[in-house]
Amino acid sequence: MMRLQTTEKKYENAFWRISKYIDSTIIHYVENCISCGICYEACPAYHIDKRYAPATIGEWFRRFYRRYMNIAGRILRKLMHAYPITPENLAKASEYAYRCTNCGLCYMVCAAGIDSGALACLTRALIREADHAPQILKTLEELEVSGKYLTPKVEEAYSKFIEEAKKILGHDVPVNDRDKAFLIPVSVVDILFAKDAVIGTMKILDKLGLSWTIPERPIGIRPPIGYASGNLSAAAGMIRTLYAYAQSLNVKAILVVDCGYMYPMLRFEGPYIAEVPQPCKILSIVEVLEDYAERGLVHPVKSTDLVTWHDPCMLMRRGGVETPKHILEEAAILTLPKNHGKYATCCGGGAHMFFLQEDVLKKLDEVLDTNLADYCKKDRFVREIAEFALKIAEHRAEELLNTGAKVILTACTSCIYMIRKSVEHSALPFVEVKHISEYLAGKI
Amino acid sequence: MDLLTFVLRYLSVPTVAILIAGFTYKTLRYALFARVYTPKPEFRWREIAIKKGSFWDIGFWHWIKELLAVFLRPIIWSVRVNIIDFVGGLALLHIIGVIPILFLMCTHVSIWLNYLPYMAIGPINLTPLVELIQKIWYFFCIPVGFGKGVVEVFSTVTAHSGLLGTIWSYLSAIPIVLNGDVLTILAIAAVIYKIIDHIIKVSRGIINIRPGDFVALILLLCILVSGFVALHAPATLPPEMFRTLIGIHVLFAEIFFMTLPFTKFSHFLFGYWYGKIHELYDAYAKRGV
């Protein structure tokens, strides 16, 4: 009995530790869902399995919250669905929380302005705090935070990347240079999965006459990976490190090429969770290109390619960066999918999803000296979530392929990976999936 | 002492007290958990303002448009993706049903207006303002049913007959179609739809429907049905029976108001407005979506 109480106390303490993130906005998200169901159709998870919808994905956090922080929940536990934090309940909560890609479409259409993605993030933070997060995510987070991701193989891959960039650009790659216009925060994921996009960005910046630099070593696996694993303190630490690094180089802006979660985390969430001011502007390559095109400062060579654009959720809904219509219409024939802009459907690669894919882990294992792909094979839950994400991706790929475009462009490494994988598996004609920088590099 | 006397004389004050205490508790929580974050990221609207020259160059109407957009977006989305739920949940339950019944049906207007004169008590004489509010409110009040006058049970303002003096005297065709009776029936249908919808969702494994949600919906249904039955009691019914029927209706309504701060219906007073204003701040002003 005594032991049971101690265990329950341990889990309750995990809740109180993450309660520092509960402010009046989170209270609103928790207490004011009216179960109207408007958000259901917006959720990519709901289209795969009707049990998972934004309101249900946020429900487990609400249940724990009611148990510990709500008077009515403390008194009328059953009537109010107030649940204690136990290993069984955490396992049930995981089933919901890890199915959310945090795409934010539910927030856009919610009648009460509730961001269920934020509640899913908090649930994952609670699960991580209670030490029940998938081992893969914990390992990646620990490697990034401790700096142990910088293995000899990573260093070697980075040197090769710099050599390749040097060959393509025709000049030395500026490393750790001070007072440049842009710092491109290259990560391990960038050099493994988005090498062409980063080199393409360098090429474009050269053509535009903008100075840039890169770090002497990759700045992380895909920082702040704590966001993906649910450890917001770890995320805050990485953001602080990155801000301090940019400040030490005195750059005018950090230019994000991988516009997945890195962009909104650095651009909007950073100052809140890291509690330090931004040292400089945070820009995505998409907004720089679009701004130049809008001002008539860049004129890509027009091609007859029929291209379509997939708005990454983190760039559009979480980052406020609009579809780069000007630049794409100048460079090719643009056709947009049925759901685009604010209403663009998620590709399934958001939040932690990318890191649960076996192929991704195999590639990471090669350089990080880990055996994460084995975990993926053995862990039924991780496999289920990974397959679930792929089903979401297939749904989006179909929408994109229906445009008839021959090239699908986007600006996020996860999006490229997920859509490419779905396109490869689809029965429809094969199309290319590229990063916008990669596509435009040869046209400017 | 009969039920009506009890609920009006003894239960109304505790009802209002619990309602106020509940909302004070809720509001205080928001205030206590509110945080002023420093430092902040650079807000997108500020970037746009710098680009355009000043805050006002973004355009006043642009801000108004965005404000309207946060309110209208869910409605447009609902029409696009789930028209049945839009009709049942939003149109019938909110726009056509509960809101006009509660605030515009003449029987209820008489109750609201009954409390208005008390506002005039105090050092400032509010009487002209109260009279103006009474006149405006009376002008829009909806008759109970076709064939029944607006002011038949309307006692606090000067009574005329039929629809005279109200908006319906100019739009006389509408109350024939849309009167208190029809609105109540539509609202009852909408609540039943919501209850069935909740049952279906629970059976499909949707976990966010709580027993408390059913209690709140059933309570709303009881209020609507009891009110409808009381207003349509046969004239031959003994007066004490009629008083009991009205008493049941008021009792349900008082329980509803007592529990309001703790049920999902509280969105109508606080959560909905807070959420939308916050969305304008977070999604538009901050991120520029």
The gyration radius over C-alpha positions of chain A equals 22 Å
- With helices defined by DSSP (H or I, 4 residues minimum), what is the helix count of chain A? 24
What is the oligomer described by this structure?
heterodimer
Shape of chain A: globular
What class, by secondary structure content of chain B? mainly alpha
Number of strands of chain B: 0
Topology as H/E string of chain B?
HHHHHHHHHHH
- Please give the CATH class of the largest domain in chain A: Mainly Alpha
- Residue share in β-strands of chain B: under 5%
SS-based class of chain A: mainly alpha
Largest sheet of chain A: 4 strands, parallel
Span between termini of chain B:
60 Å
- Please report which band the strand proportion of chain A falls in: under 5%, 5-15%, 15-25%, 25-35%, 35-45% or over 45%: 5-15%
Summed over residues and divided by their number, the pLDDT of chain B gives a mean of 84
Runs of chain A with pLDDT <50, length 5+? Answer: none
* Separate helix tally of chain B: 11
- Residue ranges of chain B: pLDDT <50 for 5 or more in a row? 150-161
Summed up:
The complex is a heterodimer of chains A (444) and B (289). By secondary structure, chain A is mainly α.
Plain-language structure description:
Chain A is mostly helical and 444 residues long. Chain A folds into 3 domains: 131 residues, Fumarate Reductase Iron-sulfur Protein, Chain B, domain 2; 157 residues, Glutathione S-transferase Yfyf (Class Pi), Chain A, domain 2 (Up-down Bundle), CATH 1.20.1050; 135 residues, Rossmann fold (3-Layer(aba) Sandwich), CATH 3.40.50. In chain A, 55% of the residues lie in helices and 6% in strands. Chain A has a 4-stranded parallel beta sheet with strand order 2-1-3-4, with helices on both faces. In chain A, strands 6-5-7-8 form a 4-stranded parallel beta sheet, with helices on both faces. In chain A, helix 16 links the parallel strand 3 and strand 4. In chain A, helix 7 runs antiparallel to helix 9 and helix 20 runs antiparallel to helix 21. The radius of gyration of chain A is 22 Å and the shape is globular. Among the domains of chain B are: 42 residues, no CATH class; 93 residues, no CATH class. Chain B contains 11 helices and no strands. Chain B starts with a helix and ends with a helix. The interface between A and B is large, with 62 and 57 residues.
